[in-house]
């Protein structure tokens, strides 16, 4: 382990981490503090990173990915963003990339689920690295979409010639 127990760590999360040590899984349905499931996975990922437990990081990242994909409302993802960006170091892109790519996939829903209200704009601006990641992710997705359209047009052109 990297460092000793920190009193700032949530005791419920420590309990789930201990459960993981024994069972290689943890139960998120009955957390005493009633955190949303994606938030639990972010918290456990942060503990795994902090204490140098790669198996916990891998497991919680996979659970986080599944939980945000199953989330029906984009608004439910919003509480995860500050936690993801504040609880993991910048060099650790795993959860950051997952949440940004999920928001980009849902970009059409963002306007209707969350809206680009003043409060949402303040939120996006409050986490500088998130803002940069979101803009870069959107640009990359636009480039990939453009390249895909160009490839389809090229293939369609050559299919018609054959």
Description:
The chain has 162 residues and is mostly helical. Helix 1 crosses helix 2 and helix 2 packs parallel to helix 4.
**Tally of helical runs:** 8
Main beta-sheet annotation: none
Instruction: Report mean pLDDT, rounded to a whole number.
Output: 79
| H/E element sequence | HHHHHHHH
Provide a brief overview of the structure.
The chain is mainly alpha-helical and 162 residues long. Helix content is 70%, strand content 0%. Helix 2 (37-50) runs antiparallel to helix 3, helix 3 (54-70) packs parallel to helix 5 and helix 5 (94-105) crosses helix 8.
Descriptive keywords:
162 residues, mainly alpha, 70% helix, elongated
Give the SSE map:
Layout: H1 11-23, H2 37-50, H3 54-70, H4 80-87, H5 94-105, H6 107-113, H7 118-126, H8 128-161
Helix pairs in contact: 1-2, 2-3, 2-4, 3-5, 5-8
